[in-house]
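It is worth pausing here to work through a concrete case rather than discussing structure prediction in the abstract. The textbook approach is simple: state the sequence, then state the predicted structure, then interpret. We follow exactly that order.
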Amino acid sequence: MEYINVPLYVARSSEYVGAEPVQRATWFSLMAWSCDQENMGRIAGARSWGDRRWMQTCGVMASEVAESCGLFHWDGDDLIVTFYPDDAQREIERKREIARVNGRKGGRKPTSEPIPETNVGSDIGNQARIANDAPLESEKKGKEKKRKEREVKENNSSPSIPPPCTVEEVEAHLRSAAFAGRVRLVPDQIPDCATAYLAKRDLTDWKRGEIPITAVKWKSDAINFAVSYSANHPPPSGNGDEDPFDPKLRKNIKPQ
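Step two, the predicted structure:
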């Protein structure tokens, strides 16, 4: 058996209530082992077992089962476990025998009894789906996917504000940013940086990922590009004593 089938009245019985805690624990261990062995509550030949055998089989000591009590007692050399569920064991043995016989005959014996319905008390499966039923989860996902695809097409079809088209606009913005110290570009680098920026954005259709670069966003985008550009294109060195980005020397960069 896989379970200890003991009714609740056992815990209210005089045998259980009157037993010591150690005796109750010992009884439970004996019951668990007996149910596993399906021995009808009789541990045969256990009188001669030593501590090692008791510990290996039932998890108890020989001294704990030496004296009989209301929960277990000796019958000759056999130890009897009180309240063993012998009826449950007989029922299991009966079902095993039926399964063994049916298996030998090729399966369960056919029956003419109708199979009970699983949806008794409801109309599920007995009426057609009506128009106002909630849509299936797959339908919801399909509609949501189409809606998102439509929004992407509408947003990316054409920017609401055209992007910068001339290199002069980019140069003027970078010149002001360099004068303010936001980018480390010397005057000779600004035209090349503006040209490189426009060339890169032409290749990407004036998009950063999937986001269009509009007239509102291109200035910050150009600054980010100029920062990266200046890191990869350091300014030519002069006499070695002057820092071209010294605030005192920014007068050489005149904003337009």
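Step three, interpretation. DSSP finds nine helices and five strands in the chain. The longest strand covers residues 72-75.
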